[in-house]
Write a structure and sequence with these properties.
It is a single chain. With 393 residues, this protein is an alpha+beta fold. It has 3 domains: 88 residues, 3-Layer(aba) Sandwich (Rossmann fold); 66 residues, Dna Ligase, domain 1 (2-Layer Sandwich); 191 residues, 2-Layer Sandwich (D-amino Acid Aminotransferase, Chain A, domain 1). The strands form 4 sheets. Strands 9, 10, 11, 12, 13, 14, 15, 17 and 18 form a 9-stranded antiparallel sheet that branches. α1 crosses α10, α2 packs parallel to α3 and α3 packs antiparallel against α4. The longest helix has 18 residues. The protein is globular and about 60 Å long. It starts with 13 loop residues before the first strand and ends with a strand. The structure holds adenosine monophosphate (AMP). The site of adenosine monophosphate has 14 residues, from β6 and β14. The site of adenosine monophosphate (AMP) has 14 residues, from β6 and β14.
Length: 393
């Protein structure tokens, strides 16, 4: 029997959310609908999810001692990571002590690092991936590029959203790519993965939810990345039956290996009927924001159900939809979004403003969502809305 108590009382069902970005914010809103008590953490104050949580703490989540202190004080029923950069070794200890980490401490540990997840996928599970080699020093790096061949893609093993990532087109790019990777990694300089360039037709995120009743797949999401960062996504991505079957099979294998309950974003490259595993995040995915308009239960609602042990008997799909990220460039602590009456003038259009307190460089600050008869029309609708948006720094 699943029981949820009263927030801020002795019966409260408590979640500590590690990471308070826009994805966390939507997840917290879904938890709030069930009366769950939410404590949001991040490295800066007033992060989006903190603005809708019951309480928050500001800390470096890589500081295991501080993280443990907060967990021991709050005694949550569920610890839910929203980002990768967390002291996942602390999660492993906490799980041993009886805490529940979503989906599992091992999953957060393995996916924090490109090496852990790549070796699991390719070497243990035998899933198809790009060619790859890891390199810790410049000499190893040169040898790895020579072995994989150019073009190849270089990424710090501790990175996400395109940070430190570059394309090595010819051997002449080697010095530049090494420098970019050493400067862009989350943990500073360090090991990189050299991946063979995959000449794909399109790439997808297959959101996969592990819940009490089993595993369910959402309709595949297509997306466009610029410099490794998502700019547009749409659902459903048309796929051949064979490719979809292979994608679901890969997603099932990798999510079963990681275990636990929750939603996973499984990223894959597709060429014809061939499907190549790229990576997996054991949490809602940025490209999955499109599900806020395409489905009755968004990826955040599904994550909440899965985490809380509630059933997911079906996932109703409302039709072709698209999302477009609003990436703001500049420096400001008082960004405003104007002309919204025009942005939202077409039917089946939505906007989410994340409420981020600051932009310093470039930052995703909002997303535009639209539904239409076809994916193409939905994408065009988000573009029309985007062009009307007036961002003031
Ligand atoms: P990642 O951070 O690994 O998800 O990479 C970000 C994006 O870079 C992907 O979504 C692809 O568009 C592109 N990319 C990454 N790895 C490769 C690869 N091996 N071959 C071609 N494109 C890639």
């Amino acid at each position: 029997m699943v029981t949820i108590g009263t927030p801020k009382s002795a019966t409260a069902t408590k979640v500590v959310l590690c990471g308070s970005g826009e994805l966390g914010k939507e997840f917290v809103i879904e938890l709030q609908r069930y009366g769950v008590e939410v404590i949001a953490l991040d490295r800066y104050a007033d992060a989006p999810a903190m603005q809708v949580a019951h309480r928050s703490y500001v800390l470096s989540m890589l500081d295991g001692d501080r993280l443990r202190e907060i967990i021991e004080k709050e005694k949550p029923d569920y610890i839910v990571p929203e980002v990768e950069a967390i002291s996942t070794s602390t999660f492993i200890e906490l799980e041993k002590e009886g805490y529940t980490v979503i989906p599992t401490a091992k999953a957060t540990f393995l996916t924090m690092n490109r090496e852990g997840i790549r070796r699991l996928a390719a070497e243990e599970l035998g899933l198809p991936t790009s060619k790859y080699k890891f390199a810790a020093t410049f000499d190893e790096f040169q040898a790895a590029v020579a072995e994989i061949g150019t073009p190849c893609v270089i990424k710090p093993i501790m990175s996400s959203s395109g940070h430190g990532q570059s394309l090595c087109r010819t051997p002449a790019d080697i010095d530049k790519c090494w420098k970019i990777a050493q400067e862009g990694g989350r943990a500073g300089a360090g090991k990189v993965i050299v991946e063979g360039f995959v000449d794909f037709d399109y790439e997808i995120t297959l959101l996969t939810v592990r819940h009490v009743g089993g595993t369910s797949f959402l309709a595949p999401i297509g997306h466009i990345q610029i410099d490794g960062d998502y700019r547009e996504s749409w659902q459903p991505q048309p796929m051949t039956g064979t490719a979809l079957e292979k994608a679901q099979d890969i997603a099932k294998k990798i999510t079963d290996a990681l275990g636990g309950r929750g939603i996973f974003g499984v990223e894959m490259f597709i060429k014809g009927d061939e499907v190549i595993f790229s990576e997996v995040s054991p949490r809602p995915h940025d490209t999955g924001m499109v599900t806020m308009i395409s489905q009755d239960l968004s990826e955040f609602a599904l994550h909440a159900r899965a985490v809380l042990g509630l059933p997911v008997p079906n996932i109703a799909f409302h039709g072709a939809s698209a999302s477009r990220a609003v990436v703001v460039n500049g420096n400001s602590t008082q960004v405003s979004f104007g002309n919204l009456e025009k942005v939202l003038e077409e039917p089946d259009t939505q906007v989410r403003l994340f409420g981020k307190p600051e932009v310093n460089g470039h930052r995703r600050m909002a997303v535009i969502l639209a539904r239409a008869e076809t994916v193409e029309e939905a994408r065009e609708k988000t573009l029309r809305a985007y062009e009307k948006l007036e961002v003031k720094l």
